[in-house]
Design goal:
mainly alpha, 2 domains, 9 helices
């Protein structure tokens, strides 16, 4: 049973990556209306007769998301039964299903009813939380036989709080990035890091798109600096822990790649491959932060229990 759970969890985590990238592909190729205003059918048909590129992209994303819904539901049920004794298992099993269903419902609402860009931007963030929940459930399943045991790690309260705050802020930055995409503000500023490098403050005060683009850049810059600062603190205080040491090296590497890929989006005039890579990297970065949240809550639990 445990071996089956491991296989299911890995397939679910990898499948959710395709769901995230597929959702980004739908938006970046303008395929969100590929199936018209029909859901779950496409153009009101099981097999549409008029095949277009946008229809193929949108329909493929729906099929992958639907398949993942079934797979994650099976994973959650089996995890509940097999490792339900693990403190976080039932909660993560519930979150995995809940956010995947919520993601699907918001996607359906976006197709069937007119939604503002500010509402649509929330979709990627919810998908990210869904992915993180499944990723953490996978980690728990592999921890059962102690292959990734981090239960002995104790994270100080001040660092736990900073990890929580950084994770919340990261979701806010992700939202601003999704807003850039949905408002088609990607290329309103031709330079990087400023809108116009020769005149850093010279951008139109009346252009909402430029405010959104530059607001996202500022927020992303703060996220990068904050991650680096916290990384230094972690390395100084937890160099003895392989989980924290290598985990934060991966995390700071991911946020560095995220900044670089964001700049490349501008330099390459919105190259699709780089744009999708940008979405993938932030997903992996948030998954790492989510793992540190898990470790932090575990430390808080043992600390309270010890007192």
């Amino acid at each position: 049973m445990l071996k089956t759970l491991k296989v299911l969890s890995v397939l679910s985590s990898l499948g959710m990556v395709f769901v995230l990238i597929g959702g980004a592909l739908v938006t970046k190729t303008g395929s969100q209306d590929g199936c018209g205003d029909s859901w779950p059918l496409c153009e009101g048909q099981l097999l549409p007769s008029n095949i277009t590129f946008e229809l193929v992209v949108e329909l493929s994303h729906r099929l992958v998301s639907g398949s993942m819904g079934i797979l994650v539901l099976v994973l959650a049920i089996l995890a509940w039964k097999r490792i339900g004794h693990v403190r976080e298992a039932k909660f993560l099993a519930f979150l995995s299903v809940f956010f995947l269903v919520l993601q699907a419902l918001i996607g359906a609402a976006a197709v069937m009813w007119e939604q503002t860009d500010f509402m649509l931007a929330a979709h990627f963030g919810i998908s990210l939380i869904s992915f993180a929940s499944i990723f953490l459930l996978t980690v728990l399943i592999f921890e059962v036989d102690k292959k990734f045991d981090a239960a002995s790690l104790m994270i100080e309260k001040k660092h736990r709080v900073e990890i929580y705050l950084l994770s919340i802020y990261a979701i806010m930055v992700v939202y601003t990035g999704a807003l850039v995409r949905h408002t088609e503000s990607n290329l309103v500023c031709g330079d990087w890091p400023f809108c116009t490098n020769s005149s850093p403050l010279a951008f139109s005060t009346y252009s909402l798109e430029q405010w959104i683009q530059m607001g996202h850049r500022l927020a992303a810059g703060i996220l990068f600096i904050w991650t680096v600062v916290l990384f230094i603190k972690i390395i100084k205080n937890y160099a003895h822990s392989r989980v924290m040491y290598w985990g934060w090296i991966i995390t700071v590497s991911l946020i560095t790649l995220q900044v670089l890929s964001g700049a490349l989006i501008i330099f390459t005039m919105l190259n699709l491959g780089i744009a999708l890579m940008h979405a993938l990297i932030i997903s992996c970065y948030f998954a790492m932060l989510s793992y540190f949240i898990l470790l932090s809550t575990r430390s808080a639990y043992y600390e309270k229990k010890g007192n």
